[in-house]
Amino acid sequence: MSELPGSVRIREVGPRDGFQNEPEVIPTQDKVRLIELLGRTGLRRLEVTSFVRADVIPQLADGAEVLAAISVPDDVSLSVLIPNDRGLDRALEQRERFHEVNVFLSASETHNRKNVNRSIAESLEGLQRVLGRARAEGLRCEGVISVSFGCPYEGEVPPARVFDVARALVEAGAQEIGFGDTTGMANPRQVREFFAAAFEALPGVELTAHFHNTRGQGLANVLAALEAGVESFESSFGELGGCPVPAGATGNVATEDVVSMLHEMGVETGVSLEALVEAARAAQEILGRPLGSHVLTAGPVEWRRSL
């Protein structure tokens, strides 16, 4: 096995990616409570909301109110998802409340049209303006590429196409590129080969892995990415989340499952697993249903403490 990094960075995306996929709108005060619990786990990066149209994602229509209300430690960096210029306009009304913006598009034409009703070229044209404006505001920028490892409509997505999109985002101002396994189609061998090529194609860019657990391979793909040299990950507490299109695309790999596995392998995250499980239990209580995280069900591994 390849040597693993001594530590990794994790961006928690549950308050955005998770909450937006819930069938009912979570009350603002409950969102604030959960985000503040996450902010006290040791996580240093939280994606807290998005500024999409309320009629498109009504679950996040209170983004401005959430940003205004939350209180997290000063060393926690808050990010928001921005779809277009209008979304950035709205976000900038709360400029002092967040530190990073994430923009997104798909690596396949079909998924991009179903998701945002635009071609990839049209999305890139708009996002180039958004990234330029955000950088001018002193905001750190991530470009997220959905279906990087396979598209449910088109099948295989050539890595070269994904890297072309990534280069365009970097040229427009993105300092970080997140590669999304949006509907859980990736496998560990593919992931290892993909990131080996990505590091060659995008030197000097922070590369982030974003896996879903739709087919139960999320943790295996995290390990494969680690072995390829990835040190930045996105995940969602409680395994919340998914993809609005197509049906059946279940949640992101659970943050507490990722943290538990990494700690057992000696890879540091800076995150308190116990505090993270507490946050996931609170989410489970608020939503009134069991969540998919394994650690939430079984608890952290305790065997070392009994030796």
Structure description:
The chain is an alpha/beta fold. It has one domain (9-299): TIM Barrel. It has helices at residues 14-18, 28-39, 63-69, 85-92, 109-116, 120-136, 159-172, 188-201, 218-227, 255-264, 273-287, 294-298, and strands at residues 9-12, 45-50, 77-81, 100-106, 140-146, 176-181, 206-211, 232-235. Helix 8 (188-201) links the parallel strand 6 and strand 7 (206-211). Helix 2 (28-39) packs across helix 3 and helix 8 (188-201) packs parallel to helix 9 (218-227). The longest helix has 17 residues, at 120-136.
Write the layout of secondary structure elements.
Blueprint: E1 9-12, H1 14-18, H2 28-39, E2 45-50, H3 63-69, E3 77-81, H4 85-92, E4 100-106, H5 109-116, H6 120-136, E5 140-146, H7 159-172, E6 176-181, H8 188-201, E7 206-211, H9 218-227, E8 232-235, H10 255-264, H11 273-287, H12 294-298
Parallel strand pairs: 1-2, 1-8, 2-3, 3-4, 4-5, 5-6, 6-7, 7-8
Helix pairs in contact: 2-3, 2-11, 6-7, 8-9, 10-11
